[in-house]
């Protein structure tokens, strides 16, 4: 089982947030009561409790992104099934989100993986990648340039090569949390 969160979703017809989330049940039929409970739980998980009746098109871009994440989550609500792990494929899951909601989304993904599910995310935010990823694949022009643990992949040399500019890793002095990257020179 897998669920996909695209970077952008465009809808041509008016739907409520709950109706969008319920699309996630297309491949996983559930009863009416369980459906309503899972929709409410998924919207709450993404920071939109009680917002299911709102029109999707009238929500902000970040709220729409979180509704789409809730839709993907109900598709694979349980990270592990009898058949094995379920997977979340996330394309820029934090685009259009403020910092607090970025952290919420990344924690959801990390908790999903910690519960036995798999998460593959395309990310351009190097700080969040360094904070949350267990394994990083760095690509440049469609080719893998480095792969492995974040501290092995996210080096001055690898990042400078991949992004085509001179970058330097910064470390916060107190707790060693990475702050990436700093452009060097002009």
In short:
This protein is of the alpha/beta class. It has 7 helices and 9 strands; from the N terminus they run βαααβββαβαββααββ.
Tell me what the structure shows.
The chain has helices at residues 17-22, 32-45, 61-75, 99-114, 126-132, 150-153, 156-163, and strands at 2-5, 80-81, 84-85, 87-91, 118-122, 136-140, 143-148, 167-171, 178-183. By secondary structure, it is α/β, with parallel strands linked by helices. The protein has a domain at 125-186. The strands form four sheets. It has a three-stranded parallel β-sheet with strand order 1-4-5. It has a two-stranded antiparallel ribbon with strand order 2-3. The radius of gyration is 18 Å and the shape is elongated. The mean pLDDT is 91.
Instruction: Characterize the biggest β-sheet.
Output: 3 strands, parallel
Radius of gyration: 18 Å
- As a percent range, the share of helical residues equals 25-40%
User: Strand arrangement, largest sheet?
Assistant: 1-4-5
């Amino acid at each position: 089982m897998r669920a996909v969160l695209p970077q952008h979703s465009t809808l041509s017809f008016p739907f409520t947030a709950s109706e969008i989330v319920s699309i996630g049940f297309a491949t996983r039929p559930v009863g009416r009561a369980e459906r309503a409970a899972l929709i409410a739980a998924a919207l709450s998980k993404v920071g939109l409790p009680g917002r299911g009746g709102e029109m999707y098109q009238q929500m902000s871009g970040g709220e729409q992104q979180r509704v789409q994440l809730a839709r993907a989550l109900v598709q694979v609500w349980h990270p592990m099934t009898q058949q094995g792990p379920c997977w979340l494929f996330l394309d820029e899951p934090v685009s259009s989100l403020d910092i607090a909601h970025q952290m919420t989304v990344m924690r959801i993904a990390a908790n999903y993986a910690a519960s036995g599910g798999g998460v593959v995310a395309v990310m351009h935010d190097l700080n969040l990648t360094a904070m949350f990823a267990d394994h990083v694949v760095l690509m440049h022009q469609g080719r893998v340039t480095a792969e492995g643990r974040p501290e092995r992949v996210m080096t001055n040399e690898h990042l400078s090569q991949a992004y085509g500019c001179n970058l330097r890793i910064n470390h916060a002095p107190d707790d060693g949390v990475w702050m990436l990257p700093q452009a060097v020179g002009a």
